[in-house]
Amino acid sequence: MGGDRAALTAVLAIVLFGETVSALKIVSLVLIIAGVVGLNLSGGGH
After folding, report:
1. What is the rounded distance in angstroms from the CA atom of residue 44 to the CA atom of residue 38?
2. Nearest to 31 by CA among 1, 2, 3
3. How many CA atoms lie within 13 A of 27 on its CB side?
4. What is the Cβ-side half-sphere exposure of residue 46, based on CA atoms within 13 angstroms?
5. Residue 11: exposed, middle, or buried by beta-carbon count in 10 A (0-12, 13-18, 19+)?
6. Residue 5 DSSP label
7. The whole model's pTM is what?
8. CA 42, 3, 31, 37 torsion: positive or negative?
9. Total count of domains within the chain
10. What's the gap between Cα 35 and its chain centre?
């Protein structure tokens, strides 16, 4: 469950600390979340 926590940390940094947001950052976060969801659905998680 490391990928979802990394994505959550990045989102919190954007919201709480005013981190700059770029299209690349948004796409990267979406890919991380999609990967975590995909692994969980395929049984690749725990």
Report:
1. 8
2. 3
3. 3
4. 2
5. middle
6. H
7. 0.67
8. positive
9. 1
10. 9
**What is the residue range of 12's domain?**
2-42
Question: What is the residue-wise DSSP string for 11-37?
Answer: HHHHHHH-----HHHHHHHHHHHHHHH
* Residue-wise pLDDT tens digits, 25-39: 899 888 988 888 888
pLDDT digits over 3-21, tens only?
Answer: 678 778 888 988 999 888 9
What are the structure tokens assigned to 31, written together? 């890919």
Alpha carbons 36 and 15: distance in angstroms, whole number: 22
18 token code pair? 């005013």
